[in-house]
Amino acid sequence: METHHLAGSRTRDETHRRLPRLSHPAGDLPRSSMEGWHPLYPGHIPTSPLQKALLAAGSAVMALCDPYRHDMVAVLGETTGCLALPNLRDKMKNHPEGYRILQERPRIRLSTLDMARLQGLPDGSLGREYVRFLEDNKVSPDTRMPPKFVDDEELAYVIQRYREVHDLMHTLLGMPTNMLGEVVVKWFEAVQTGLPMCVLGAAFGPVRLSSRKLQVLATELVPWAIRSGLNASCVLNVYYEQRWEQPVESLREELGIFPPPPVRV
């Protein structure tokens, strides 16, 4: 029995040596396209323009059917952001605080946040209101998916940063995570970032809202979100991790975000 086991092992080893080893995450690509390939960042999956188009179409359909499919929303953002992401990167490079963020690459994760310190900050401060938002809506910054389909390491960080400050946009805008609140934030982000994913969410998100909420959205919230998005400086140029003590109202005023309208969302 032992001799048979050893012989079987040799056979498997020889077979393994004869087979090509596929270390590429997209192992079904032609071998010629894999030679000399190196991942741009952990988890990166290279895709052709056609593959990106197919991924964008499929993820758009899934995201419209279920707006809470964050994985599909993430894929849509990565495969359609080829024009918006370089523009956002350039805005960050041309701003002192944004440039420092690009250089230092901070991450907003539970592992990087001192939750006890943030909970102890005064009411109204960015850190305290951010933690309150996470607790009230039962969300975590760790749910933000890492990028996969962005074929530039720096741009991959830009979209990662956008995802990780999304909850801070909710905090600054005073919007919950229900459908109405998400649509309002998407309108603001669409104007701010130009990402097609945000435009799509802003345009098609309201189809699930009641007539009463649609009226509030159209007459109060969307005009405010658009005006604020146009008036505000780029929200990716804020080193939020160094602003936790700053009052939310002060940061809104600094950025140029108008106070939220007095309506229940």
Q: What structural class results from the helix and strand content?
A: mainly alpha
Distance, first to last CA: 72 Å
The main pleated sheet reads as: none
Number of alpha- plus pi-helical segments:
14
Computed CA radius of gyration, to the nearest angstrom: 22 Å
Question: Which consecutive residue ranges, at least 5 long each, have pLDDT under 50?
Answer: 1-35
Average of the residue pLDDT scores: 87
| Helical amount | 55-70%
What global shape is seen? Answer: globular
Beta-strand content bin: under 5%
Secondary-structure element order, N to C: HHHHHHHHHHHHHH
Oligomer: single chain
The total number of structural domains is 1
Find the count of extended strands (DSSP E, 2+ residues).
Answer: 0
Protein name: Ubiquinone biosynthesis protein COQ4 homolog, mitochondrial
Cofactor: Zn(2+)
Pfam families: Coq4 (PF05019)
Organism: Zosterops lateralis melanops
Describe the structure.
Its EC number is 4.1.1.130. Residues 1-34 are annotated as: Disordered. GO terms for molecular function: 4-hydroxy-3-methoxy-5-polyprenylbenzoate decarboxylase activity; zinc ion binding. By secondary structure, the protein is mainly alpha-helical. The protein has one domain (45-255). It contains 14 helices and no strands. The protein has helices at residues 2-18, 31-34, 49-65, 70-80, 84-93, 96-104, 115-119, 126-137, 153-164, 166-173, 179-193, 196-204, 211-231, 248-255. Helix 5 (84-93) crosses helix 9, helix 11 runs antiparallel to helix 12 and helix 11 (179-193) runs parallel beside helix 13 (211-231). The longest helix is centred in the C-terminal third of the chain and has 21 residues, at 211-231. The radius of gyration is 22 Å and the shape is globular. The model is unreliable at 1-35 (pLDDT under 50).
